[in-house]
Amino acid sequence: MNTLILPLALLCGLVLCATGVSVFVAFRAHGLLAEIDSRAQLAKGRKDEQPSEPDPLRATVDTLAAQLRDLQSHPHVAAQVGAPKAGFNLSKRSQALRMHRRGEAPEQIAATLDLPRQEVELLLKVHRIVIQNV
């Protein structure tokens, strides 16, 4: 029978200890909640006493929003100095040939498509050679 009493005593001690810890945690949580409420009331009282000051974060957000609106209305385009223009792509080539078939001059085709005149003349010469060989 003594062998049964020792584990029961340990179990009772463990339950008693767990109950004590639970009660302590409950009182501590109650105290922390009361402190949070009192701080919230104090902060609310301070806010009511002082005139509303502009929030620095709000001011920063407003400034950034104004800068964004300014950039959207006046985009800054950096010009690439000395960068070569792209050559003929398929659509510009077909447009140039279509304009040539309508009788437009190479200078006018170059100006319309924003291409160098020499490239348009070269395209037309190559096109004539291909047409002759077909």
Write the layout of secondary structure elements.
Blueprint: H1 2-49, H2 56-73, H3 90-101, H4 106-113, H5 117-133
Helix pairs in contact: 3-4, 3-5, 4-5
Q: How does this structure look, described?
A:
With 134 residues, the chain is an all-alpha fold. Among the domains are: 1-49; 90-133. It has five helices and no strands. It has helices at 2-49, 56-73, 90-101, 106-113, 117-133.
Give descriptors for this structure.
mainly alpha; elongated; 5 helices; 134 residues
Low-confidence stretches are none
- Give the C-alpha Rg: 42 Å
Biggest pleated-sheet summary: none
SSE order in H/E notation? HHHHH
Distance between the termini: 116 Å
Number of alpha- plus pi-helical segments: 5
> Tally of extended strands?
0
The whole-number mean of residue pLDDT values reads: 83
Strand content: under 5%
Structural class: mainly alpha
Shape: elongated
Helix content: over 70%
Q: What is shown here, in short?
A:
The protein is built from 5 helices and no strands.
